[in-house]
Amino acid sequence: MRSARHAGFFLVGILLSGCGLLDGGSADADSTSAAAALNTGGASLTLPVVGETVRRGDLILSVSATGTVRSEATAELKAETAGFISEVLVRPGDRVAKGQVLVRLDIKPLELALARAEANHRNAQARYRAEIEPDSVASGQAPSEARRAFARASSGLETSDVDLQEARYNLERAEVRAPFAGVIERVDVAVGTRITSGADIAELVDITNLRVEAHVLEHDIPLLKGGGVAEVRLAAMPDQPLEGRIAAVLPIVDSTDKSGTAVIRIRGDGKIRPGMYADIRLEANRLTDRIIVPARAVIERDGRPLVFRVEDGIAGWVYVNAGRSNGRETEILPDSVSGLIPLEPGDIVLIDGHLTLTHQAPVRLVARDETGN
How many C-beta atoms surround the C-beta of residue 365 within 10 A? Predict the structure, then answer.
């Protein structure tokens, strides 16, 4: 029966040197010799080796690229009205929610401006009625639209309408709010500062919705398509690969460095920052329903590819017909003579410490958590 364990097992292989089992020698004598060697620390050698399971699935052939993390949303927040800063409620590095108040202006001058606009509007309405009502009484008919338009203009009602809307708008904009959730990059104002409309207030960066702009060599661009899988490894976190999707392949190729751009969208976890450097592998082709082993499992003996499979406590080599590889995984093709694949999903093959291992070496499976690694 084949042993099928989870990927990532550590296997400890004990090579019995000089036992003579393969030469037809006595098994009992060799066992005695091996035990003596273990007790004396002589010819025995314990090799820590690592195994992973064979799987059935898709082999993704990929192209390599480098790129930079960018935020999907960066906002330069600006004042929409003039006034004095009364409160600054955030600092650089603060996380804020959508709609959160960041800065407040002194609203007293804005409230006075609104009261003045409301008073002017009431006066303009009175002048408008004073012009229209006599005409209505004299003629017994409602004034024409042309007469109403003239009266609105001559009374100043049209202008006062605009002034009132502007005063209300300015009061509403006395609070500067975050347009989306993110992190404050910088704050450009302080309490007591007088600002004008359009002045810089702060910069807000979304660190959750991110993209990676990958620079792809021009001869690899035709191999890419939207929706393909992308593996992103950040220089700051090389052991924590991120999976994303190719959102778009941009149309322009840079004539200087002969590269184009593929956009990969990823989800930030709070540790990833815009501007980080990344190594990227982009899906170029997908080979479906294949028997797949780690690329490191395939080695050569006498010019023939093989893997070490663990079965019933014995690590034995199995000659294979290795197909295409993406550098991390390799497909195993049917044998050219029998048409069969000598491996099955769930088989354990060695990926480390097996370069000098002999055929039919006794081994012991040890779970990874038992090794302390």
Answer: 15
